[in-house]
Amino acid sequence: MAILSVNAGSSSLKFALYPLIGSEVQTQILSGLMEGLESGGAPQMRWHYQGQEHCCALVVDDQPVFAQALCSLRELLAQLPDAPTLQAVSHRVVHGADKYRASLFVNDEVLAQLAAFNSLAPLHQPHNLEGIRAFRAAFVGLPQVACFDTAFHASLPEVDYRFALPQELYAQGLRRYGFHGLSYQYVMGTLLAHSTRAKGRTLMAHLGNGASLCAARDGKSCATTMGFSALDGLIMGTRPGALDPGVLLYLLEQGWDHARLQKLLYKQSGLLGLSGLSADMRRLREASSPQAKLAIEAFTYRVVRETGALVACVQGLDVLAFSGGIGEHDVTLRAQVGQQLSWLGVVIDPERNARATGSEVVAIHAPSSQVEVWVVPTDEAVVAAREAATLLFA
Ligand SMILES: Nc1ncnc2c1ncn2[C@@H]1O[C@H](COP(=O)(O)OP(=O)(O)O)[C@@H](O)[C@H]1O
Ligand SMILES: CC(=O)OP(=O)(O)O
Ligand SMILES: [Mg+2]
């Protein structure tokens, strides 16, 4: 028996297969990625199984590419020696809004409700739901579970989640929700297992293509930088993070329409917009242009600035954790953030920092540090698998 965990994005679909022993989720035996699924792309599937990497082009005939891709995945699963029987597919879904505060089995009604949140997360939600629909069609009768990025932040206090807007707008759902919840759930659980201090005031930095911070106390989210949508807060790969809404009013006056603004905010800003070069931190590190340097400095600065705000919300800091592609791999970023937080008593050990390369959980603080600093490779997929197991065996 096994659970398949799925994270369907705009152009790729990540999957991982977790065997079950009883209701216990075991170490994944297969992980993979389908990419090039956007129209005009060159769809291919890469997967890792028994220590080996495999890759194949996905044949696109007259079927929609998603259906074709899932046929290939179904064949791949059937070919595994001793192929485990799938019990459920568990999907990361970015937005559950106020309605869904916990993972659940998806049915037609839930799907329709979730589609109503598409415009709140246009970069993610439509693709998450397309993934669920495609799996429901390809694996008929198999339970499909939705796990929400917003759910971890159900503990946010009202002072944090309310906008200072008229009440009728709050009644329409205009409030801060917070995202990256599956990642924070994983990182928080890992920190609690590694450090007794993690029950105190913990700041988690999920710095990937999307980026946010979450301050937790007693393992529960108290404040986070993302809000109503996944646009607020830190600078991201292609999103600007916090932006004076006056900028949008100005652009509207200049004749910009919704589609153009949406593209600006989700696709053309952030590291890409500032550097004029790339949304990828690795490319920016390699580049020599002043704009690339500014993009990195601004990204780092905003992490430090928002950390100050979140630390104030929880009145101090016991544990700081880095995760996400940048947080797990970028040694320079961690060193600079640590240095700029020295006023909080943060001291990062340069050698430990250099040794943390995202493959394992590592403490990187110096003995003199008043704050523990950890690098935690995040794992949203296993959280989704565990959520599904909990529902299946409840
Ligand atoms: N060795 C590295 N050094 C710096 N940045 C890295 C490194 N490896 C990955 N990254 C960055 O991580 C980001 C992607 O993060 P990731 O969490 O994988 O994204 P996603 O949100 O798509 O899952 C990219 O900006 C990438 O450049
Ligand atoms: C919510 C969000 O920004 O997700 P990602 O980091 O996967 O883009
Ligand atoms: Mg991510």
TrEMBL record:
Its EC number is 2.7.2.1. Keywords: ATP-binding, Cytoplasm, Kinase, Magnesium, Metal-binding, Nucleotide-binding, Transferase. Mg(2+). Can also accept Mn(2+). GO terms for biological process: acetate metabolic process; acetyl-CoA biosynthetic process. Its cofactor is Mg(2+); Mn(2+). The active site is at 149 (proton donor/acceptor). The record marks 180, 239 as: Transition state stabilizer. It is an enzyme of class 2 (transferase). InterPro entries: Ac/propionate_kinase, Aliphatic_acid_kin_short-chain, Aliphatic_acid_kinase_CS, ATPase_NBD. ATP binds at residues 14, 206-210, 280-282, 325-329. The keyword Mitochondrion does not apply. One of its GO terms (cellular component) is cytosol. Homodimer. Catalyzes the formation of acetyl phosphate from acetate and ATP. Can also catalyze the reverse reaction. This is Acetate kinase. It comes from Rhodoferax fermentans. The lineage of its organism: Bacteria, Pseudomonadati, Pseudomonadota, Betaproteobacteria, Burkholderiales.
